[in-house]
Amino acid sequence: MYILGVNAYHADASACIYHNDQLIAASEEERFRRIKHWAGFPTLAIEFCLKEAGISIQDIDYIAISRDPKANFGKKVLTAIKNRLSLKNMLNWAKNLKKAANIEDEILTHFKLDKGSLKAQIVNVEHHRSHLASAFFASDFEEAAILSIDGFGDYSSTMVATGKGNQIKVLETVSYPHSAGVFYTTFTQYLGFPHFGDEYKVMGLAPYGEAKYVDQLKDVLIFKDDGLFELNLAYFNHPKKGVQMVWEDGIPHMDSLYTPYLIEKFGPIRGKDEPLSQYHKDLAASVQRITEALIFHILNHLQKKTGLKNICIAGGVAQNSVANGKIITNTKFEKLYIPPAGHDAGTCLGAALWVYNQVLKNPRIPTTNHGYLGSQFTNEEIIVCLEKEGIAFEKLEGEALFNKVSNCLINSGVVGWFQGRAEFGPRALGHRSIIADPRRADAKEILNAKIKRRESFRPFAPSILKEYVAEYFELVDDVPFMEKVFPIKKEKHAIIPAVTHVDGTGRLQTVDKAVEPKYYGLIENFRKKTGVPILLNTSFNENEPIVNTPQEALACYLRTKMDMLVMGDIVVSRR
Q: What angle do CA 413, 418, 421 make, to 5 degrees?
């Protein structure tokens, strides 16, 4: 049995394919279109998944869509009428809803099939149920509490549930217009970060400030006694205007969400090119702090209600790795699982798993312990790419390769590391990474000067050999997807300054030899030479989606000042 999972007409459009209980492939559409957070119908991701499975669209048994246009439909209409939403907003909403409801037509048109000839049964799965399934059904927990929390999807923003075996039971929902994701996005816009997906910049800025304005923000984000929350709608545009999303050419854009009342209470908005003041930093710290407190508030009530010790979390807010790193110490949950793609792209996995487990009642799939599900290329394909461009290279294997790369890193080099299958999800995990020496205090400046050109307050992450976490971090856990931030031991700050944030933390990725032997081998080689079992790891890109092909990796290498490019066993060097 084949199940194709699809996230369509929503940010981070994506597709995946399962054959029985095996996840064969998954990818975001942005990796092919080269447009961040691409939204629309993910034809290229679907074609990639079918190719990886070696089948055609007519071999698919179920197509699981992580949108349900019928979900909460009555509430949507009543809200639109009650708030007298503009005709433009209502038309845009209806247009997007119509597209989501006509997926079969999109598939028939793209694959040139006749009406009624599609073999697959199409199943619409509500957005947050898809998030819940992406976390719980992929975990190794037989029973767990589950939280889905983001902006909006199918008119809801938050859903709490329990999972047991192959079934999920929804307990409570927070619906439009109340949303923790909208709260965070509104202040992201207010702080001068206007692009869709900029919330991580506020998270990176927060440690430079003090959380002085939490009490003031409690008038904006209101905690309820039942363990949920609501917004003070005076601060937000969306209850009257709707969440005006524009998907033109697949580029998500969201109109401003703040009202004049928010500006009256918090002061003038920051222009995107305006210098960051201490007030901006303090407000970012306060937004981050109250968001963390809200997550703990929800989870502590959920734990008390269910009595469960395991928790699974997904949704856009679950990408807040700083909050994630504090969950176990601030709640009574004992174990936490967050999938490699907890954001909206991951709903394609969740929709497929909802069909496989919840609907068809099949036994659970093997635990998802890596995110390497995307495109892959052989040494021979890489060589063809380089020869076509007249690029000199050498081929090295095993320790010879590791020696070459680690020596470059030790001598202040920056290396593009392109290996195996591309990661599915927002993090580079050692397959499409740019790596550097974490011991260099100037590594951040070198990376930004040579390649990344990003804001100075944004940190770079450490990839650490699994066995050495306790030596460097105050908390110990498996963190394979770079989904948690932990405090770094004070005595190690000066040893790995390039990956130690201003507040003494690091967003770690634990590297397991059994899961990723090649990246492990490189870090181990570096450890033997330096005594440090860590590499600085950032995504292989330059203000674009993470590179997907050898051609894209080479182009990024050539237009930047990267010192070395390693694709498979093929090495390209500038010196």
A: 155
SS3 at position 546: coil
Do residues 356 and 366 make contact, with C-beta atoms less than 8 angstroms apart? no
Query: For the residues of 135-190, what is the DSSP string, one character each?
Result: HHTTSS-SEEEEEEEEEEETTEEEEEEEEETTEEEEEEEEETT--HHHHHHHHHHH
> Which residue, chain included where needed, has tokens 């300054």?
497
pTM, two decimals, is: 0.94
- What pLDDT, in 10s, does the model give residues 419-449? 999 999 999 999 999 999 999 999 988 898 8
pLDDT, position 72: 56
Counts of helices then strands in the chain (DSSP H, E): 21, 23
Question: What is the C-alpha to C-alpha distance for residues 195 and 317, in angstroms, rounded to an integer?
Answer: 16
Which helix (H) or strand (E) is 264 found in, with range? helix 260-266
* Cβ neighbourhood burial of 160 (10 Å; 0-12, 13-18, 19+): buried
Tokens representing 136 are 């719980």
pLDDT tens-place string over residues 157-183: 999 999 999 999 999 999 999 999 999
Tens digit of each residue's pLDDT (9 = 90 or more) over 85-95? 554 555 555 55
Phi then psi for residue 308, to 5 deg, are -85, 155
Start-end of H helices in 443-568? 443-447, 469-472, 517-530, 550-559
| Neighbouring-strand partners of residue 14 | 7, 28
Is residue 393 a contact partner of residue 572, using CB atoms and an 8 Å limit? Answer: yes
How distant, in Å, are the alpha carbons of 39, 251, 497, 498 from that of 12? 6, 10, 33, 30
Q: What angle do CA 341, 162, 483 make, to 5 degrees?
A: 25
Residues 44, 260: contact at Cβ < 8 Å? no
Give the 3-state DSSP-derived string for 230-242, with helices as H, strands as E and coil as C.
EECHHHECHHHHC
Distance from chain centroid for Cα 348:
13
Ordered structural domains, the chain, with CATH: 2-129 (3.30.420), 379-573 (3.90.870.20)
Q: Cα(314)–Cα(340) distance, rounded to whole angstroms?
A: 10
Asked if the peptide bond before residue 177 counts as cis, ω within 30 degrees of 0, the response is yes
Total Cβ atoms within 10 A of residue 337: 23
Q: 3-state DSSP call for residue 47? A: helix
